[in-house]
Amino acid sequence: MAVDVTHANRSQLASLPPGPRIAPLQSFRYFRDPFGYYDEMKARYGDLFTMPTMNGTLIIAMSADHVKDILGRRDLAVGFGFGAIEPVLGRGSLLLSTGDRHRRDRKLLSPTFHGNRMRAYAPLVIECTEHEFKGWVDGREFCVRDAMENISIEVIIRAAFGVQSAERVLAFRTAIREAILEVNPAILFFKFLQRDFWGRGPWSRLKRKLERLDSLIYQQIEQSRNVLAGREDMLSRLLEARDDDGTGLDDKALRDQLVTFLFAGHETTATTLSWAFAEAIRHPAMLKRLRDEIVPLGPSPDPKALAELPYLDAFCLETLRTHPILPEFFRTVATDDCEFAGYPIPRGVSLAGSILMVHRDERVYDDPLRFEPQRFVDHNYSPHEFLTFGGGQRRCIGAAFATQEMKLVLGTILPRVDLDSKIAGPLKTVRRNGTLAPEADVPVRVVRRIDG
Ligand code: HEM
Q1: What residues contact residue 98 under an 8 Å CB cut-off, 6+ apart?
Q2: Domain count of the chain?
Q3: Is the CB of 92 under 6 A from ligand 1?
């Protein structure tokens, strides 16, 4: 059962860490400029501050030590703010489940994302990358973000459902894109807008688009159930998954998990890849080092060898560190006797681990604002220091899938093309569908294809 995010009462608020008090103003300033807002709060209040928001009270933790404490706590296992997305993802989504239900589902789903499963998806990522790369001809101008989205959406559709035919992939792609276009934060947050108005209006449109996507998913579940042998896709693995009592996932639960993978798994990866291209173009010496490492693997590198290259790995990690897609992860207090950093924290208040601020903390990262992959060659950072995928019991289940995809896409493309971009200097970060994305979606021009 989800815990309601309640507003703490006045006396409870008074005993929380210090912080600003006017909710709408804080939400507005934070959404407009999370970096500037957090920097100012840190200068005023130190590593911990209380932030009233329109959706409840948040305690923002900005040091690695506080984050370590949050991630180690068993009494903090509920996400925050995702409840609003339930009409889209469904009640069975791993992102929304809590307590025993979350533990059970996590156990059922985890094998689908383990190491040997990842290797099975590698040829698919390379095939989708090659398909997109065919169209990168000399002189062509385009946005890297669109190209990466083409790859990541095809990868996740085919990895999730095992669909092969171009027609079927297109049907899924269209259904997903049309549904995403109808996901409007206002109708998710304001329940009174979730009404039909005689089949018209944004809520009805969203429902129709989701029904279209659901009908494709349920057809695919039916077909896959009949032919499981020899299949490697996520749906087939989930159809076989059983918990300790021998119970599996019913069709609705399968649908909810698969929709979650589709929504959580493609925009995030596409955006991170766009940042990686932007950084490679901005740092020619690093690009040369990447090429020098990749080229000796030959024209069709073995995916496993690519995924194990140390500098490519470090380059991806540094991209994920400097450009986290989500600025923080959340945990909501689900007990009546929670204490954190010496403060009693009322039930329903959420703690947020600030991924942005830990990644910009000089106590953890030397010269943190500098893009420097070498730091990940020289040093292993702890789970509470490198937080792009969150951490603890709720760490992103698709982290290995996403990092493998990054390495395979970059390893396939970077040695074979010279790109330039009109944008000089570092790209600004803007909000895009709830994620932190590069401004203008990284416009580039193909200077020349090196592979002819
Ligand atoms: C660069 C790509 C990605 C980034 C930056 C990212 C980031 C995150 C973050 C920050 C969380 C919250 C973790 C926490 O609360 O501790 C999360 C959760 C999650 N992610 Fe990802 N993600 C990415 C790719 C993916 C992919 C490819 C999938 C699936 C195919 C996926 C599925 C999920 C799911 C199901 C959860 C909920 C886990 C749980 O609550 O147990 N993500 N992700």
Answers
A1: 1, 2, 3, 77, 78, 79, 334
A2: 1
A3: no
